[in-house]
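Quick one, tokens below. Sequence please?
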């Protein structure tokens, strides 16, 4: 039975919470202030702490900080009676799992506690490196191709995340495979009827978002209804206008919404929060479990496996796909190229070549010219990552592939 430590200076709150929490299968214990709660937590190590924010001599925020310092894995839900969410957002920033605004509904309370316990269990599994029963190891490794250190780490993260429904934020460049990871996590739910509701935040209009999230009367919108029991998948969440971000926050505050949220971003959301371009509460709600999906340049050892995988998918039907192979020179070019378009670009190159080739052996001469041209960049190592490399590629394209001319434009010594 999961244990919950309830911290509030009002005994009437203790009685009310025990009456609604205990019948749902939780063991409850109580403390009347933060100092007593800290002592009791150190003695008994509860699964979850439900604490009021307005207490003396130690308030809920101070208790939160002290608990997190003592036990970084502590799961704390803060209760606040304030109309303003400023203190609640502060609690999220300091590591609270969630917050509840008084007066809250019983189903909202129970749903939050259950999610908190799920998260606690996930942390325990992550600490021992285990995979809960039902985790589809084979499916995960079939969908996420690679044996490099970066991809092995990603696969292990996905295996652990497959056991819980906590929101996940997938970070990474375009074309790295974030959608595939989201699909794997959705399929791990094990319900063939559960829907994956995929929304591209860079394309949908404000009207569509309001209808999809809130509906016409402020109730659950069509996307929320469709995602119940399944997954709401928001791609490019950094593109959401601020007022739509606020609408999404209001949906997530309804902790009984019943779907798993997976978001992707190609930008650093924490920087956007600091710049006032991303809602702070939304960030702390969606980014509790961030996962970085690595670019192809950080997993070049996987390229031969990926090339083989794409070859089997797209080779000329008149050829035996198992017999199609790339020469050493061709594979060397594929492996050394920086792939700014990541998996998307790699797939396009491989699929175009193998689907049109009339020969079983693919040579370096059959590869796009840009793969060999970029190898002749002077001082290339200085331009291998980030926006600098993308800018260099743009200059090279403008110079029609003439690396010497592009080098002069960029001021690179030849």
């Amino acid at each position: 039975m999961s244990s919950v430590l309830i911290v509030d200076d009002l005994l009437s709150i203790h009685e009310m919470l025990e009456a609604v929490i205990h019948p749902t299968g939780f063991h409850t214990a109580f403390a009347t202030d933060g100092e007593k709660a800290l002592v009791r937590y150190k003695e008994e190590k509860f699964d979850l702490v439900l604490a009021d924010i307005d207490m003396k001599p130690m308030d809920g925020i101070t208790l939160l900080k002290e608990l997190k310092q003592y036990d970084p894995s502590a799961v704390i839900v803060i209760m606040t009676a304030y109309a303003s969410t400023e203190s609640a957002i502060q609690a999220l920033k300091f590591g609270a799992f969630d917050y509840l605004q008084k007066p809250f509904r019983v189903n909202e309370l129970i749903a939050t506690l259950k999610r908190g316990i799920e998260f606690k269990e996930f942390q325990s599994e992550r600490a021992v490196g285990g995979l809960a029963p039902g985790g589809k190891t084979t499916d995960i490794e079939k969908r996420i191709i690679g044996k490099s250190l970066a991809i092995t780490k990603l696969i292990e993260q996905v295996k652990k995340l497959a056991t819980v429904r906590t929101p996940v934020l997938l970070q990474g460049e375009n074309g790295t495979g974030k959608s595939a990871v989201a699909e794997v996590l959705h399929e791990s739910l094990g319900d063939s009827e559960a829907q994956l509701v995929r929304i591209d935040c860079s394309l949908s209009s404000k009207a569509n978002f309001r209808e999809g999230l809130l509906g016409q009367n402020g109730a659950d919108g069509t996307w929320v209804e469709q995602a119940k029991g399944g997954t709401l998948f928001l791609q490019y969440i950094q593109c959401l206008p601020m007022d739509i971000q606020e609408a999404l926050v209001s949906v997530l505050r309804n902790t009984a919404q019943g779907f798993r949220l997976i978001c992707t971003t190609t930008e650093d959301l924490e920087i956007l929060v600091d710049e006032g371009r991303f809602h702070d509460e939304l960030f702390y709600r969606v980014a509790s479990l961030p996962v970085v999906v690595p670019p192809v340049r950080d997993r070049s050892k996987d390229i031969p496996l990926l090339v083989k995988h794409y070859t089997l998918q797209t080779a000329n039907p008149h050829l035996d796909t198992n017999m199609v192979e790339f020469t050493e020179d061709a594979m060397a070019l594929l492996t050394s190229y920086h792939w700014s378009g990541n998996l998307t670009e790699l797939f396009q190159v491989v699929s175009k070549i193998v689907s049109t080739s009339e020969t079983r052996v693919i040579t370096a001469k059959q590869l796009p010219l840009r793969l060999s041209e970029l190898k002749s960049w002077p001082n290339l190592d200085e331009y291998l990552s980030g926006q600098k490399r993308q800018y260099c590629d743009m200059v090279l394209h403008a110079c029609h592939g003439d690396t010497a001319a592009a080098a002069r434009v960029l001021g690179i010594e030849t």
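Confidence is low (pLDDT under 50) at residues 126-138, 374-384. The domain at 297-410 is CATH 1.10.8.60 (Helicase, Ruva Protein; domain 3).
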